[in-house]
From TrEMBL, chain A:
<comment type="function">
    <text>Subunit of the oligosaccharyl transferase (OST) complex that catalyzes the initial transfer of a defined glycan (Glc(3)Man(9)GlcNAc(2) in eukaryotes) from the lipid carrier dolichol-pyrophosphate to an asparagine residue within an Asn-X-Ser/Thr consensus motif in nascent polypeptide chains, the first step in protein N-glycosylation. N-glycosylation occurs cotranslationally and the complex associates with the Sec61 complex at the channel-forming translocon complex that mediates protein translocation across the endoplasmic reticulum (ER). All subunits are required for a maximal enzyme activity.</text>
</comment>
<feature type="signal peptide">
    <location>
        <begin position="1"/>
        <end position="23"/>
    </location>
</feature>
<dbReference type="Pfam" id="PF23861">
    <property type="entry name" value="Ribophorin_II_2nd"/>
</dbReference>
<keyword id="KW-0472">Membrane</keyword>
<dbReference type="InterPro" id="IPR055375">
    <property type="entry name" value="Ribophorin_II_2nd"/>
</dbReference>
<dbReference type="GO" id="GO:0008250">
    <property type="term" value="C:oligosaccharyltransferase complex"/>
</dbReference>
<feature type="transmembrane region" description="Helical">
    <location>
        <begin position="596"/>
        <end position="618"/>
    </location>
</feature>
<dbReference type="InterPro" id="IPR056790">
    <property type="entry name" value="Ribophorin_II_C"/>
</dbReference>
<protein>
    <recommendedName>
        <fullName>Dolichyl-diphosphooligosaccharide--protein glycosyltransferase subunit 2</fullName>
    </recommendedName>
</protein>
From TrEMBL, chain B:
<feature type="transmembrane region" description="Helical">
    <location>
        <begin position="55"/>
        <end position="75"/>
    </location>
</feature>
<keyword id="KW-0812">Transmembrane</keyword>
<dbReference type="Pfam" id="PF02109">
    <property type="entry name" value="DAD"/>
</dbReference>
<comment type="subunit">
    <text>Component of the oligosaccharyltransferase (OST) complex.</text>
</comment>
<keyword id="KW-0472">Membrane</keyword>
<keyword id="KW-0053">Apoptosis</keyword>
<comment type="pathway">
    <text>Protein modification; protein glycosylation.</text>
</comment>
<keyword id="KW-1133">Transmembrane helix</keyword>
<comment type="function">
    <text>Subunit of the oligosaccharyl transferase (OST) complex that catalyzes the initial transfer of a defined glycan (Glc(3)Man(9)GlcNAc(2) in eukaryotes) from the lipid carrier dolichol-pyrophosphate to an asparagine residue within an Asn-X-Ser/Thr consensus motif in nascent polypeptide chains, the first step in protein N-glycosylation. N-glycosylation occurs cotranslationally and the complex associates with the Sec61 complex at the channel-forming translocon complex that mediates protein translocation across the endoplasmic reticulum (ER). All subunits are required for a maximal enzyme activity.</text>
</comment>
Length: 691, 114
């Protein structure tokens, strides 16, 4: 027994929250759209926007938004289009070409409409797919709207052909052979059926139209919704090539349904809230991102603007941030989706809710006054005595004319978020330094409206107290989003503290004895900065209150060092510190004199040697006297001398390779010469011995 | 003690007389050896005074002296007629070896001198 009850309650809760949850901000189509359209659709030099289809979409968007289509560029378009119409092209191109001719108001004298009509009628007869039928029927309808006489021969048969492709769930197939059905195709089919009915010479059987109405009802059972009452159509992404997306699908169905509603004698069984939901969907896109999306949005809204089911009316607030100080009025606009004026309405503000969904009890339902000049409904806020804050406003719109109530869709409850801002008073701001036993206090009053700065001094045994009160314009105590007190040392080390709140007051008590370590034992001048901020506070505070000279004890050895302050990031491109290279200190050399002295001393043994040689009685008797051996002997001694000279040169400036090369030559020479000399000497001494 | 000094004097005199008998060529070689060693000693004394920087220069200087002294000693051994081992070796050949080895030694020394 309890279970169904619980389920019911759950459902109610869900529905209730769906109704009451606030949605995205919706505004009707405005000049922002128009300027965006001119930026999006930029025609090429010859006046086209790409393919024929893209040109049609661009021109249709311009037509709906009321943008200029008479520029000289588009004369070229007219010419290209009329050429297209004369040459054999696909039905799709014919359709787009005819539409462009109609939008631009091109001269139609040169166009052979009879030929085109017969081509389209053949296409209708031979059509095998839904799209073929759609384009050919659409083309015929455009030709008829140009004033030409067009009659569809087999209207019933065509109607049947289109109807045959429908599915039981309200969707349509693209042609007989395809198995998958789509909602996008349903939109196209409905538009094609509407064209058939318009083109039919004799009336179509009403029962058939009634069947289609039922199909539409089934189609609308598939509608999806967002929490804020926005409705849309979408399909499963089965085939990425065929998947159109929610915007295209909803746009197609909107065009189809509104077209069919226009030709159906009886009203379609679709509630106004569904139309309003679809309108909200298209408007909530804002300004779309691509040209195609733009066309879909604008085209669908145009078909909704003047549809026969019910015309959606949109409530929007030109300003959602209202200032109590400036005595702003709550202004509300109710217009059609394109911003054109609505019929006579009554707009009432039912409830005002705080962010935690509680009702502001002091507020009773009020009806807004109407300003016919600016077409705005307004309400004075000051007599309402609502305090600053963020609120959800719940509106209800009702059409004054009871007959008109059926024609327009206004929605049930419309929820809008608004901010009421005001000037927050700062009272009783005080800052005081007291001893730890709270015996004496030196209190200084802070006047935050003036630019004055206070200066205090304290040591680590004392306490600092900062307190203030914040009051809203209506006298209630105010709790801001953010209140921070910052202490900044001369060395740029910062510490942040958050005051505590108690009843009406904000108080910060700093006991320096406990904070000595947090402050890194840095004594000196600290600047005190106060920051108070909130979304609804018009006079947020961010300023320096003054400074305090803190005397803290010396840091013990193991104390934490203050964090390194961020270095200016651009300073790394400045000059770097000078590098002093440490070269190997040159060895201590002895004084020059000493070295030279010893060099002289080294020569001494040589002199001693030479003197000794003389004393021994060395002689040159063994030197050969005859010519050839003498030469060789001289050359031998000369060779040795040359080698020694080569060594000296090697030491002074030559390198090993050159030396070895030279030595090679000299060595060979010396060997030869030496051999000759020494063998001569040997032979001489041998002769002496034997002799 | 006078006897001691007398004996020393007698010893020195007899050595001198014996030495005077050596051939001139050997005396030349001996003088050369003494010259080379004296130069080496002076270099070592210099190094002792000013430190061994640059060490390679010191080594090359000292080793050139020592090397040439060694080669001269070898030459003396080979040239000495009283030496039975080298009877068949002509002194010119020994001298040629001496010259060649000296030249190679001095090349290496010059390279190492720096």
């Amino acid at each position: 027994m309890a279970k169904p009850l619980v389920l019911h309650l759950l459902l109610l809760l869900i529905c209730g929250s769906a109704l009451l949850s606030s949605g995205s901000v919706i505004h009707p189509i405005s000049d922002a759209h128009r300027s965006a359209a001119t930026e999006f659709f930029v025609p090429a030099a010859d006046g086209s926007f790409g393919s024929l289809e893209e040109t049609y979409e661009a021109l249709r968007t311009f037509q709906i938004l009321g943008l200029d289509r008479s520029s000289a560029k588009f004369e070229g378009t007219c010419k290209t289009v009329s050429e297209k119409l004369s040459s054999p092209t696909t039905t799709k191109d014919l359709y787009h070409a005819l539409k462009i001719t109609a939008i631009l108001g091109c001269r139609t004298e040169s166009i052979e409409f009879d030929g085109i009509t017969s081509r389209l009628q053949t296409a209708v007869k031979d059509a095998s797919s839904l799209l073929e039928l759609y384009y050919s029927l659409g083309g015929l309808l455009t030709v008829k709207e140009q004033g030409k006489d067009v009659i569809l021969s087999d209207a019933d048969g065509t109607f049947q052909a289109i109807k045959a492709l429908s599915q039981s769930d309200g969707r349509w197939r693209y042609d007989k052979d395809s198995t998958g059905s789509s909602a996008f195709a349903a939109g196209i089919a409905l538009e094609a059926l509407a064209s058939v009915v318009s083109l039919a010479g004799s009336d179509i059987d009403q029962s058939k139209i009634a069947v289609v109405r039922k199909d539409i009802t089934k189609l609308f059972d598939r509608i999806k919704h967002y929490d804020d009452g926005t409705l849309y159509f979408d399909e499963k992404n089965v085939d990425p090539d065929q998947y159109k997306g929610p915007l295209a699908t909803s746009a197609s169905i909107t065009s189809g349904v509104t077209a069919f509603a226009a030709v159906s004698s009886e009203k379609l069984n679709i509630g106004g809230e569904k139309i309003l939901g679809l309108a909200k969907f298209f408007l909530s896109i804002g300004i779309p991102g691509t040209a195609k999306d733009f066309f879909y949005q604008i085209n669908s809204l145009a078909s909704l603007e003047n549809n026969r089911i019910s015309i959606p009316l949109v409530l929007s607030l030109p300003a959602t941030v209202l200032s109590l100080t400036a005595k702003d009025q709550l202004k509300v606009e109710v217009t059609t989706v394109f911003g054109s004026h609505a019929p006579s309405l009554a707009v009432s503000l039912l409830k005002v809710l705080t962010p935690d969904s509680k009702e502001v009890t002091s507020f009773e339902k009020k009806e807004l006054e109407y300003d016919p000049e600016n077409r705005i409904h307004f309400l004075d806020l000051s007599p309402l005595k609502i305090d600053v804050g963020k609120y959800s406003l719940i509106f209800k719109v009702s059409v004054n004319d009871p007959e008109g109530a059926d024609l327009y869709a206004t929605g049930d409850q419309i929820i809008v978020t608004a901010f009421l801002t005001g000037f927050i008073k700062v009272d009783k701001a005080e800052i005081a330094v007291s001893d730890s036993d709270a015996a004496s206090e030196s209190v200084q009053k802070l006047d935050l409206s003036k630019e004055s700065l206070i200066s205090l001094s304290a040591n680590h045994l004392q306490k600092l107290r900062l307190s203030l009160q914040l009051t809203t314009p209506l006298g209630h105590s105010f709790k801001p989003h953010q209140m921070v007190v910052k202490f900044r040392h001369e060395s740029k080390v910062e510490h942040l503290f958050v005051p505590e709140t108690s009843s009406r007051q904000y108080k910060l008590v700093l006991n320096f004895l406990g904070l000595v370590e947090k402050f890194y034992y840095l004594s000196g001048r600290y600047e005190i900065e106060l920051a108070v901020g909130d979304a609804v506070m018009e006079n947020s505070i961010l300023r320096s209150i003054g400074s305090i000279e803190l005397d803290l004890p010396e840091a013990p050895e193991k104390a934490a060092k203050p964090p390194a302050q961020p270095v200016d990031p651009l300073s790394r491109f400045g000059p770097k510190e000078e590098i002093s290279h440490i070269f190997r200190a040159p060895e201590k050399r002895p004084p020059q004199g000493l070295s030279l002295g010893f060099m002289g001393l080294t020569i001494l043994p040589l002199l001693a040697f030479l003197i000794g040689l003389l004393r021994i009685g060395v002689n040159f008797k063994g030197f050969p006297t005859s010519a050839a051996p003498a030469t060789f002997a001289i050359l031998f001694h000369g060779g040795i001398g040359a080698v020694l000279l080569l060594y000296v040169l090697f030491w002074l400036k030559l390198d090993l390779f050159t030396t070895l090369k030279a030595l090679g030559f000299l060595g060979v020479f010396l060997l030869f010469v030496g051999h000759r000399t020494l063998s001569y000497l040997a032979s001489t001494s041998a002769k002496q011995k034997t002799a | 003690m006078a006897k001691g000094t007398n004996d020393a004097q007698l010893l020195v005199q007899s050595l001198r007389k014996a030495y005077a008998a050596t051939p001139t060529s050997l005396k030349i070689i001996d003088l050369y050896v003494v010259y080379a060693v004296a130069t080496a000693l002076i270099q070592v004394a210099y190094m002792a005074m000013v430190g061994s920087f640059p060490f390679n220069s010191f080594l090359s200087g000292v080793l050139s002296c020592v090397g040439t002294a060694v080669l001269a000693v070898c030459l003396r051994i080979q040239v000495n007629k009283d030496n039975k081992e080298f009877k068949d070796l002509p002194p010119e050949r020994a001298f040629a070896d001496f010259v060649l080895c000296n030249l190679v030694l001095h090349l290496v020394i010059m390279n190492f001198l720096g």
